[in-house]
Amino acid sequence: MLTRMSQDAEQPKPVRLSRLLVLLFWSLLAFYLVAGAVVTFNQRWFIYVPPIYTSRHVDQLAQAANLERWTNSAGESIGMKRLSARQRAVGSVLILYGNGSCAVNCAHYADDIQRAAAFDVFILEYPGYADRPGSPNQNSLFQAADNGLEMLPTNQPVYLVGESLGSGVAAHLAGARTDKIAGMILLSPFNRMTDVAQYHMPVFPVPLLLMDRFPSETYLRNYHGPVAMTVDGRDQVVPEKFGLRLYNGYAGPKHLWEFPQGGHIEITEPASDFWNEVIEFWQTNRFR
Q1: What does the alpha-carbon distance between residue 171 and residue 200 come to, in Å, rounded to a whole number?
Q2: Phi (first) and psi of residue 284, to 5 degrees
Q3: What residue ranges do the domains of the chain occupy?
Q4: Residues near 152 by beta carbon (within 8 Å), at least 6 away in sequence
Q5: 40-91 pLDDT tens trace
Q6: 3-state secondary structure 153-215
Q7: pLDDT 10s digits, 209-263
Q8: What is the DSSP string of 42-76?
């Protein structure tokens, strides 16, 4: 009888354990849903990290970097420019920078490219970056790029330089305005933003949540000009596999620079050699 009573007393334990497991499940589910909601409603805060400067500070940085304001037809500042010291220029280069940068921080591209050839260099400022009004998102970046392209000289070929996030903007321009883009180079690019975001947040259904997708591989299907790309073996922001997917899927003239020891947007060969090679590739395969 004592044995039977002992067995009866132990019976509630599995029930209590089951209730604890159910409670734990619902608690974890609630935490997951709350975390997913936080990520979803703040996703643009994670994607775009614009440096904010006063106009005075921007002007000071521009003067130090030998850049001048680039304005639209309404006189509004849309970025920076530096015309070639040798005129007539052989073309225009439009710089589309990556997240966390801004136009005045891209003067090194103008330095390197203009050492290699007589290009006019224009650097687009994104809405919400530096001192440009607005909020950054895919549509606002694309609209700014479309408008910037319209402000470039029409009597010379246009080439694009897109780094990281800016590679998606460059791909959009090339796909939408194929008649105006003579060639491009994408530095640490990705095939589509959804793949990169899923890599960084594997526990969430990113394709269902992401608003700004930057599907570069889709845009480039409409473009058939020369596309150069770089990928970096130690890139933790945009791992090289995403750039290789974009490169391997492109059907037009292309060239790939691989930097096994490079981090994100890190060109590990001398800049003069690299840009000479890029420009030779552009001009040899120039799209008309």
Answers
A1: 22
A2: -70, -35
A3: 2-41, 50-284
A4: 92, 94, 122, 158
A5: 656 676 789 999 999 999 999 999 999 999 999 999 999 999 999 988 899 9
A6: CCCCCEEEEEECHHHHHHHHHHHHCCCCEEEEEEECCCCCHHHHHHHHCCCCCHHHHCCCCCC
A7: 888 999 999 999 999 999 999 999 999 999 999 999 999 999 999 999 999 999 9
A8: THHHHH----B--HHHHHHHHHHTT-EEEE-TTS-
Residue 279 backbone zone (phi > 0: left; psi -120 to 50: alpha; other: beta)? alpha
Each residue of 105-130: b (16+ CB within 10 Å) or e?
A: bbbebbebbbebbebbbbbbbbbbbb
Contact 97, 257 (CB under 8 A): no
Residue 190 CA to residue 216 CA, distance in Å, equals 7
Residue among 66, 58, 190, 197 at smallest CA distance from 132:
58
Supply 226's token pair.
Answer: 């020369």
AA letter at 254 = K
The hierarchical CATH code for the domain 50-284 is: 3.40.50.1820
Interior CA angle at 201 toward 199 and 206, to 5°? 90
pTM: 0.88
